[in-house]
Each structure stands twice: as C-alpha cells, then as structure tokens.
Design a protein that fits this description.
The chain is of the alpha+beta class. Helices cover 25% and strands 32% of the residues. It is built from 4 helices and 10 strands, in the order αααβββββαβββββ. Strands 1, 2, 3, 4, 6, 8, 9 and 10 form an 8-stranded antiparallel β-sheet that branches. It has a two-stranded antiparallel sheet with strand order 5-7. A hairpin with a 6-residue loop joins strand 1 and strand 2.
C-alpha cells in the first residue's frame, strides 16, 4: 500500500484521536513573555495505543515532546518550539518491542501533521534497518513563535535530521 493509501486508512480509522492529539501538540509549550519560560518549557503528550494498520498483531505508542526552541541551542533568545514525535511498536499479545515499517511510520506523521506542515518534518536518528523498518521512529517539526512550521533553525545542531520525503 502507498503512503497516501496508508495515511487515508489511518485518518479514517483514527479521526478523533488524531484531531485531539494534533491539538495537544501544536499549542505553544510555554506562556509567552519570559525567556526563562522558553528555556525550560517542555511537555509530553501521549496518544493512547493504537492498532497498526499494516500488522493486526501490533500496537503503536505515539509520544510527542514539545519544547521551546531555546532548549536546543546556545541562543536562549530563540523563540518558537520543536515537536519531537516518536513511534514505537509492540506485540499486542506480549507487549514486546516490534520493528515497524518505515512507510507506516511516515504515514502516521502525515496523518497527524498533514497538509503543508508535513513538508517541514525531519526524520531523526538512525537510518532504517534493511527492509525499511525501525525499532523507534522519531521525527521533528520546528515552529516559529506563532506556531507556523519553519525549516530547522541554523542554530539547531543535529546531524541526524533528514527532511522527510514522502513518495
């Protein structure tokens, strides 16, 4: 199944969960006003476990950490936020870790962030194992102070970030 087909299937099966999760993660992580709030702002949002759309025996845990951009750099005046999304798979029967197809992970990102935001998403961390699978898939999205998606700021140094390209 194509990424678009997977994304559509996810959106149909999980509309309410996606909308609530998206709202939770895209609101600013801090109260505007103080640099201190920007430096220390952080919150985690967890989506209830969902069933994989490609493997009926797998559950997915999706977690987002939302942090002020200043947390990532020496530039403590940098405003905006970074959303780090992670997806891990588990066997439904035993709870043991399970590698996930990269295509499904990418489709979940598109379903969660969608629209024009997906063009600003970066895949983070190690390259997939042979066959396009990952134990944990991580992604980052950078937002300006008005919560608009932006390219990775130059002051954010992370060589593991690669722009997400959906096919």
């Amino acid at each position: 199944m194509t990424i678009n087909g997977l994304t559509t299937k996810i959106q149909i099966q999980h509309t309410q969960e996606l909308n609530a999760f998206r709202q939770d993660i895209t609101s600013p992580p801090y109260q505007a006003g103080t640099a201190t709030a920007l430096n220390t702002a952080r919150r985690s949002v967890r989506m209830n476990p969902v069933q994989s759309v490609e493997d009926g025996n797998a559950s997915l845990t999706i977690v987002a950490d939302v942090q002020g951009l200043a947390w990532f750099t020496a530039d403590k005046g940098l405003q905006g936020s970074c959303i780090t999304l992670s997806i891990a798979g588990h066997r439904r029967a035993t709870g043991t870790r399970l590698s996930l197809p990269l295509a499904e992970c990418d489709a979940w990102m598109e379903a969660i962030l969608g629209g024009s935001w997906i063009t600003h998403v970066y895949r983070s961390g190690a390259s997939p194992e042979p066959g396009g699978k990952l134990d944990v898939a991580s992604y980052r999205l950078f937002l300006d102070e008005r919560s608009n998606p932006v390219a990775k700021p130059k002051s954010v140094v992370d060589d593991s970030l690669r722009r997400l390209e959906l096919s």
